[in-house]
Amino acid sequence: MQKLPFISIVIPAFNEAASIKQTISELVKLLLPHSRLEILLIDDGSTDATTKTALQLTEEFNCLKYIRLSRNFGKEAALTAGLHRAKGDAVIILDADGQHPPEILLTFIRLWQEGYEVVYGVQEQRHESRMTKLAKKIYYRLMKRFASIDIPSNAGDFRLLDRKAVNSLNLLTESSRYMKGLYAWVGYRSIAVPYVARKRHSGNTHFNFFKLFKLGLIGLTGFSVLPLRLVSF
Ligand code: UDP
Ligand code: MG
């Protein structure tokens, strides 16, 4: 009999009490028959009932581990904590709010088993305001033109990383992190998989325009000399 692969799933969650039960149940139902599963719920300092709900879920699902950060550090830090704790041969990163369609994970896992070390989701048909769409388009153009590495457009944290890529990411000690840049920076054999994001199970995005702008700036200053050149000019 073929040995089941050991898969970790890292889920960052900030005030997602209303979503996590559905997200985790769907994952367990889908993946338990195909893998040895570990799910790490990283509570990024939630102030709602996320803790209570998550602790109840740990009683229901043996594969669930709950890790709580001491305050809200932001998604990049929550992911970093999860990647350090994950033990799987492959680590999947997925949002807590249900927007990342779990069925696609079977394709992620198949491509990994075929030899790809990074399988990343590329979001199609975004339901965003015109202003956000335009800002993102300009940002990705700037990054394509000026960043020192090729960071794929419209690809986020929804991805599978082979153990080798996770170990490499875990060696990086930046405190101001732009994960999309770091994934690209560590390299490895990668492939894109298009997906359409679902609606949130509940609530609204935590990333308003200002937060996205701040994160974008970390990316631009971290992976391009353009801002320095502009200042000296
Ligand atoms: N998140 C987090 N810390 C934060 C903000 C968000 O861990 O400070 C989590 C959030 O709970 C969700 C994921 O990151 O699981 C993506 O956040 P969100 O859905 O708000 O962003 P969007 O889907 O708009 O990119
Ligand atoms: Mg979301």
Succession of helices and strands: EHEHEHEHEHEHHEHH
Structural class of the secondary structure composition?
alpha/beta
The span between the termini is: 65 Å
Major pleated sheet: 7 strands, mixed
Q: Compute the CA-based radius of gyration.
A: 18 Å
Bound molecules: uridine-5'-diphosphate, magnesium ion
Morphology call: globular
Helix content: 40-55%
Overall average pLDDT: 91
> Number of helix segments?
9
Q: What is the total tally of β strands?
A: 7
The strand line-up of the biggest sheet is: 3-2-1-4-6-5-7
The oligomeric state of the chains shown is single chain
Report strand %: 15-25%
Describe the structure.
The protein is of the alpha/beta class and 233 residues long. Helices cover 44% and strands 20% of the residues. It is built from nine helices and seven strands; from the N terminus they run βαβαβαβαβαβααβαα. A seven-stranded mixed β-sheet has the order 3-2-1-4-6-5-7, with helices on both faces. Helix 5 runs parallel beside helix 8. 35% of the residues are buried. The structure holds uridine-5'-diphosphate and magnesium ion. The site of magnesium ion has 5 residues, from loops. Uridine-5'-diphosphate (UDP) binds next to strand 1 and helix 3.
